[in-house]
Amino acid sequence: MSHLKLWLLTNTFFITVITSQTLLAQNQIPTTLDGPFKPVTRRFDPSFRRGSDDLPMNHPRLKKNVTSNFPEQISLAISSPTSMWVSWVTGEAQIGSNVIPLDPASVASEVWYGKESGKYTSRGKGDSTIYTQLYPFEGLLNYTSGIIHHVRIDGLEPETKYFYKCGDSSIPAMSEEHVFETLPLPGPNAYPCRIAIIGDLGLTSNSSTTIDHVIANDPSMILMVGDLTYANQYLTTGGKGVPCYSCAFPDAPIRETYQPRWDGWGRFMEPLISSSPMMVIEGNHEIEPQVSGITFKSYLTRYAVPSEESGSNSNFYYSFDAGGIHFVMLGAYVDYNSTGAQYSWLKKDLYQVDRAKTPWLVAAWHPPWYNSYSSHYQEFECMRQEMEELLYQYRVDIVFSGHVHAYERMNRVFNYTLDPCGPVYITVGDGGNIEKIDVDHADEPGNCPSAGDNMPEFGGVCHINFSSGPAEGKFCWDKQPEWSAFRESSFGHGILEVVNSTYALWTWHRNQDIYRGDSHGDQIYVVRPPELCIDSTLEGSGRPGDGGVTNEAADMLARWTWFAAWIEMLTVAVIWTSVY
Q1: Which residue from 145, 217, 322, 508 lies 20 to 30 Å from 517 (Cα-Cα)?
Q2: Cα separations (Å) of 291 from 41, 96, 294, 308, 335?
Q3: Active-site residue flag, 213
Q4: Cβ distance 32 to 483 under 8 Å?
Q5: How far apart are the C-alpha atoms of 579 and 357, rounded to whole Å?
Q6: What is the pLDDT of residues 216-256, one digit of tens each?
Q7: Alpha carbon separation from 270 to 7, 61, 469 (Å, rounded)
Q8: Active-site residue, selected from the candidate residues 149, 366, 376, 493
């Protein structure tokens, strides 16, 4: 090698090192490799109201704008990497003492679709159904839905735009044209552009701001982590919804609902979910008890999920792939015990995950396991004790939940102990619902719940005192827990952007930042450390790794990542000098 080439090679190497350090200094977005982070609390801004009233049913975004049997409340959901569910409602819902269900067979279920606007080269047919919400109490009104249609369209090409109409062509009553874009096939190098995460949305003015903000962020898909409509904040006669049902209606014979709110919510969401698939999981506000102990009827009937496709055969829990991400949606309001059907399905599903094809593993359910707010504190501790170890063994990367009406992001944690191989738990129950924002923290004086508070609406009670660490022997910490990295009481939503098989950018957008350009409430790169936390001989096999590691090992991995990047650039420099 000539002196000139050696000079060029040496200078290229040092320029690479300096450039990398400069980029590090300029890039203010932290990564999880920088953690665990010192806990931070951003206090509730007293200049904001803690909540707002529900939008009335005659609001332009909630009222019915089609006639007769034309489709409305159109929505999409992922069925498989090459198929999509299209759902909609036709006909008139009824509410009253004596309601007569519509005949689902009276209107056909068709979807016309193709790759060019106005040219529909394929057609799909599906099924239709109705449901009733009946109350065996004098003075309470019953409800029967419009006809709910579900059509699965197949043979879709990945990352392709499709135009579609739905309805019944024989009437004729077809919808206007809508458009969606399919997601990438499972693989380590292709991911959805943006995934919106929303929880506890409701139908208030704050909910409107949240959805407007989500639409502006143009998501490829939406995860809705429970508590959709808050129809159970009403009496069956309608009227005005309330923030606290038991406070307003202490003598109600049953937790009533005003089911037309579901129809209003479907219309409210249609501009978003008719073009971006929405994947839902149930929350406590979907329980909606009625006659004969029937529950969850609205949730189970209105929205399609890939339950059969994922082998769960239950709309309460299922899984699906979106590019290089495997999503697991779990049910907190059905049996989650290790001896039950959901646990058995989950174990099988996780075992079958090929991390070489879908490197990222993301889970979601409604109530959080890790939560430092007073509201719902340790409410689902039983579920955590049953399921956490299994998720940890299979190295779930991120967990999304709602239920608590605030935002909180955790440091990587397992069994209340900081662990670089634990998931990043994130609570986004701040969609804007009528129950208002949560502001009290369990670690603040006077805010620690009693053992009789926060009783779950399903499952047992497993409240515990901490057995080790700074809160040893206590039910609550006396400061923000070390596993709570950041918390803030504001309405908003999150966006997950997976960059590659190792890095994913998480951004939490506060509603008050909607008009502030690139402003955001919280942002971090979640970094997968597979070399650190999974035995290399098991990578891609679907089997769990060999246990956790120390923070020193995590630091070593971070240094190795940058060293490897320098070596890669140095290799390029060598090739360049050898050519020239």
Answers
A1: 322
A2: 45, 15, 6, 28, 22
A3: no
A4: no
A5: 36
A6: 999 999 999 999 999 999 999 999 999 999 999 999 999 99
A7: 62, 10, 48
A8: 376
